[in-house]
Amino acid sequence: MQILLTVAVPLIGMVGIALAGRWPNLREGVTLLTATVNAVNVWTILPVVLEGGRPAVSVIEILPGLPLKFEAEPLGMLFAAVAATLWIVNSIYSIGYMRGNNEVRQTRFYACFALAIAGAMGVAFAGNLLTLFIFYEVLTLSTYPLVIHKETEEARRGGRTYLGILIATSIGLQLPAIIWTWHLTGTLDFVPGGTLAGKVQGVSAGLLLALYMYGIGKAALMPVHRWLPAAMVAPTPVSALLHAVAVVKAGVFTVLKVIVYIFGLDLMSSEPMTNWLVYAAAITLTLASLIAMQQDNLKRRLAYSTVSQLSYVILAGALGTAMGVVGGGMHIAMHAAGKITLFFCAGAIYVAAHKNEISDMKGIGRVMPVTTFCFMIGALSVIGLPPLGGSWSKMLIMVGAADAGFQIMIGVLILSSLLNVAYLMPVPLRGFMFRPPDAGDGPVKVREAPLPCLIAIVITSALCVVLFFGAGEIYDMLLPITEPGGGRR
């Protein structure tokens, strides 16, 4: 029942938000209450999973042998906990941003946000590929109104790119891959050790993997990544949803889920025809970093940074090693905390100073010291500097590369981290080292974003530190998914 409530609670909240639309305070109160209830419900499932339990429930049999099925396992539990927790923080931030920026259609915004979280919960706890595919599509469709929120021509154009690429890849590539898997195995269940173990090899294995990896468009593996920077026309809370809470995390979560439970680590590590994914991920994470360096618009720079960071997770899974998979799973949480902080800060700068271009942000650290300092914390976590969470996940992925015999990938990951420094650190450094051009010789007046925005920014930047010291618990939770048994049922 609790697993079903993770989907039902956001849907009930969506209805409540719509009904309370005339009264902003009540509407936002319903949003915060729904997010809190959902997070508490998700976190109460965690102890069962940590003890090795795999609670599952089937709702309805759609086709013979193909039920709508939900199951809690470590990887999905991590994704659900991240999404549910950050929904609360994002809701706090959204109140300050949407009011401070006088955004229109706020009721639709909060209602679609709740529907998107319901989709993310369905993806996280999906017990088979059919259930995952259904909620994957729900997540795509529910976020489209958020992307085109401003309803300008630019927003509609970005929305068309967003929806077109994600629907085309899922229907044209991912769905055929699922049907092929059903044909080969007679089941779409997630099986510890891999549903396809002993059922596919050679060129067929490589081709089926390609259908999945490019069919999971939300993972933004080049060249199916253009939807992500195109979606930056959306308000900043939506960008945070796309990059940290739900959409892209649903993509890389699905990648790991398919690699671990459909292909299996033994097949990935022993089949040469799957090695192409290692190089495709390495190319994406490097090229995206180089493109990010050329972007003056802060949100677009962060968007290409996300494309790069997602490929860390894809690379981790492609290695087919236990440490790689655990590092990739950890990176979902670590990157979520760091990147949501960066987007929150970008939005705060826009609300308080109306600046989008990095070249216009000289001295912004003296005007907005809290926001700029928190941006630096988020940036250092994404870069992977201790004592911040991103350092652990990157280290484990490097260990996984060494275990797999891909030592060259250690060099690629180090190069990428150096590129992270080059495109992220100029923002806080220019912000603190220079005086604002319009300040003259007098004292600089501090003008931070609205208080709800600041509260959310401080919470997520603190989470970057907390995740460094709590990494051991995440490691222990994820390690069983790399074992053939996968835990107790």
UniProtKB/TrEMBL annotation:
GO cellular component: plasma membrane
Chief localisation class: membrane
Coiled-coil parts of chain: none
Taxonomic superkingdom: Bacteria
TM region(s), chain numbering: 75-97, 109-127, 133-149, 161-182, 202-221, 241-264, 276-293, 302-326, 332-352, 364-384, 404-425, 451-471
Localization terms from the record: Cell membrane; Membrane
Domain NADH:quinone oxidoreductase/Mrp antiporter transmembrane, chain residue ranges per copy: 126-417
Presence of the UniProt keyword Membrane in the record: yes
Membrane topology term: Multi-pass membrane protein
Keyword Membrane annotated: yes
Record-linked InterPro entries: CPA3_Na-H_Antiporter_D, ND/Mrp_TM
Keyword field: Cell membrane, Membrane, Transmembrane, Transmembrane helix
Family: Belongs to the CPA3 antiporters (TC 2.A.63) subunit D family.
PANTHER family referenced in this protein's UniProt entry, alphabetically: NA(+)_H(+) ANTIPORTER SUBUNIT D1, NADH DEHYDROGENASE
The protein's name in its UniProt record: Cation:proton antiporter
